[in-house]
Recover the amino acids of this structure.
């Protein structure tokens, strides 16, 4: 059992119609000039953006808007947002959307509050000393960015996807209305569920001593997301299922499911980041396409956890050798991915990298993690390449 | 499933020797003159207080000290603390101890920040508009006050015990070193475990629709505390068991185990508060002495939850009628209380109220809750009296 810090200051306002409280919340945190940052046209088409601006107008809060945040959000838009904030004297950021809009807003916040080139933070060259205050109206349950300290940005030049984590970037508030996620395409809903589960699984598969209560929370969270992800395949407008997934998404990545562990493994994420940088695939789908190959490559080095996962999460009967039970757990997870129409390899993901591209991804991944990384099993460049090859 | 707010801004610093970070944390939150508030002599005898003041001395942070917070902390000491803070220009409160010192410090903080009579808040006459910033070094896992919004104070005149909850009272940081709880008397350790469990059980036994993930967390938390409470009966210095209980204590009462519920039942607490006001018994022991009688009085009105509790928490086989399974769950919980040497009725608690006293307690309890309260079953004064009688 390891020491830990736990810091989740984000004020969560959860339930139907909660977006109506946005102006009141912005005022609570001192915002007077807001940049509303969002992604594609769905928040415009759904009328959500208008409802938000109407609320701000009624409350006398000034704002400017910036749309265009895309999955794997781009550094160029972040630069644009920083300039806009400086020009307009913005003192509060409001992200309306999912992880792309939130991560992009966090990067804008770091850029405005710290000056210099914001990519420095994502390039591990310096640490942020602050961030513009940020609020969130969540429309997609996936990245957990609404309560997490992390953000991921892609630099177009060289297709480099990097994450930066800082407590300064944690949102002041997160408005979570499960109804706002009901119009998502089924594929995005499933990708979100996969991403949510992986945030806990990355923390769960370690050789560090997890805490019992943390394990119980992690296992309960995974079971809950699986149950409700399957409900949403058939009944996408099920409020309760949307709500379970939405709250699980925040708890999965705010630190709770890692308290007392060694920090977790995180190699599935790192391997997927290179894939996402190269192909612009949906993050959740990239994760499930890699996970099975990663799990089979590492499970013997982390057998107690994989066995426990099989029994407590996947419902595998605890009979036979530990290895057999663990493998059944991996197979059961892949079967679940298929039931929610997620890929279990790169072919199903729809990408076909050449051997040269695999080598390049493995190299970039190894450089990105400083040579080697992983708690379930420490992976070096050759291991990464082997997993990429196995995932074809 | 109900809407909810979730707000847990407390920065948790968990692990061995974490009390060494206290000066750094106080500085982070702007404290320049600190009131160190503690309870009995144990923090003096153990050397903890000296380690804390040495750390503040080394960091050049000024402080005054005020000991004497007792279980069921007294209003008179709160008044004394408020005067001391005003006289000395205190701008930060540091509670070193368990719930008594923390709750007393919260009340001092409300008094200093709001002026007027601090009892007004506990008497439901007005709401706090602020609180002096508060940090905690936790030495007893029980009340969860280190992350909760609540505090309970007893007014000596009339022996009135009342709680007040406000987000302003949430601690800025909580230092949690499980080793600091190792020297507790076994009875206090067990009382703490009982209190921790009850904070989740009060939220769990409702007729409102709980969320699945909240239920999974609640059930996992209860199982974890039970397992480790029994370990601590035999092995009080077991670090991992102390750590599980300590972290469970914070999660049990910071709001997490109630997200999506109707707010919970809370009648066991209310019934115990009157007992605590009259007899000065340990809170946790008072709770277990009441719980069985409460549970048997209400379970038929909340059968699905009591059945689920029996199966998922107490490990009862789900065979036979729902009522039979539910009753077995209640019996199993009482058996657990006995295994950790906690009372299951007032006789075992060591108190023998007269019929007049029972009537008075029921009346005060009913007045305290505004006539009637309870989600598992709505209880009025006559119900409260019946439960008190059954608990003799």
């Amino acid at each position: 059992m390891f020491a830990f810090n736990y810091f989740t200051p984000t004020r969560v306002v959860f339930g139907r119609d909660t977006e109506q409280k946005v102006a009141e919340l912005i005022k609570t945190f001192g915002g007077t000039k807001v940049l509303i940052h969002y992604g594609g046209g769905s928040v415009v088409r759904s009328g959500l953006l208008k409802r938000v601006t109407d609320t701000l107008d009624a409350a006398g809060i000034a704002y400017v808007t910036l749309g265009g945040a895309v999955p794997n959000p781009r550094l160029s838009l972040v630069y644009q947002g920083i300039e806009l904030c400086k020009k307009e004297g913005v003192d509060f950021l409001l992200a309306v959307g999912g992880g792309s809009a939130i991560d992009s807003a966090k990067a804008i916040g770091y850029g405005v509050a710290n000056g210099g080139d914001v990519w420095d933070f994502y390039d591990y060259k310096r640490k942020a000393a602050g961030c513009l205050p940020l609020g969130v109206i969540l429309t997609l349950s996936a990245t957990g960015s609404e309560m997490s300290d992390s953000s991921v940005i892609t630099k177009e030049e060289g297709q480099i996807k990097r994450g930066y984590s800082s407590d300064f970037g944690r949102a002041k508030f997160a408005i979570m209305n499960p109804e706002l996620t009901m119009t998502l395409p089924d594929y995005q809903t499933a990708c979100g569920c996969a991403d949510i589960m992986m945030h806990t699984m990355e923390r769960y598969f370690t050789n560090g001593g997890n805490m019992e209560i943390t394990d119980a929370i992690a296992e309960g969270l995974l079971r809950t997301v699986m149950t409700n992800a399957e409900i949403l395949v058939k009944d996408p407008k099920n409020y309760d299922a949307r709500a379970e997934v939405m709250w699980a998404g925040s708890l999965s990545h705010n630190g709770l499911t890692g308290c007392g562990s060694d920090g977790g493994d995180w190699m599935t994420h790192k391997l997927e980041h290179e894939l996402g940088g190269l192909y612009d695939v949906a993050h959740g789908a990239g994760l499930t396409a890699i996970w099975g190959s990663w799990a089979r490559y590492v499970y013997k080095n982390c057998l107690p956890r994989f066995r426990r996962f099989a029994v407590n999460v996947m419902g595998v009967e605890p009979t036979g050798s530990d290895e057999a039970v663990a493998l059944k757990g991996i197979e059961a997870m892949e079967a679940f991915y298929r039931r929610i129409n997620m890929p279990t390899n790169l072919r199903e993901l729809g990408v076909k990298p050449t051997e040269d591209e695999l080598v390049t991804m493995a190299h970039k991944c190894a450089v990105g993690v400083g040579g080697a990384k992983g708690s379930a099993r420490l992976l070096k460049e050759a291991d990464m390449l082997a997993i990429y090859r196995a995932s074809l």
